[in-house]
Amino acid sequence: MVVGGSGGSRIISAVAQTIIRAMLFNQTIKEAVDAPRFHNQFIPNVTEYETSVPKTIVQALQTQYHQTFSGITKQASVVQALTHMEDGFIHGNSDFRRKTSTYPAGY
């Protein structure tokens, strides 16, 4: 698996969430890259979440872990990922959050 991103301080959380979803939750690379994201910078101690996250998850995190949340439409980070699957094919996805279009250059 190869994962990279852009987006300043949000790169680490975006890449980590993509890897966790693909490797631990067995999501496809498309599902992992396209999934809603969270980001917490710790200063300020506010967790950004994409508003496509189910409200029940946000409410549970607020209630159980006393998190402060701020909803955003799309996170500023952008991730591209490739994974070599057991079927011998390389599967990839470019983040829909990217502001400019991306087209495969071929490989």
Radius of gyration: 15 Å
Which segments are poorly predicted (pLDDT under 50) over 5 or more consecutive residues? none
Please count the helical segments: 3
Query: What quaternary form is this?
Result: single chain
Name the helix and strand elements from N-terminus to C-terminus, one letter apiece.
EHHEEHEEE
How large a portion of the residues is in β-strands, by DSSP E? 25-35%
Strand order of the largest sheet: 1-5-6
Question: Helix fraction?
Answer: 25-40%
Cα distance spanning the termini: 16 Å
What form results from the Cα inertia axes? globular
Secondary-structure-based class equals: alpha+beta
Number of strands: 6
Q: Tell me, rounded to a whole number, the average pLDDT.
A: 91
Major sheet summary line = 3 strands, antiparallel
Binding site for L-glutamate: 8
Pfam families: G_glu_transpept (PF01019)
Protein name: Gamma-glutamyltransferase
Organism: Panagrolaimus davidi
Task: Describe the protein in words.
The protein is α+β, with helices and mostly antiparallel strands. Helix content is 28%, strand content 26%. A 3-stranded antiparallel sheet has the order 1-5-6. The radius of gyration is 15 Å and the shape is globular.
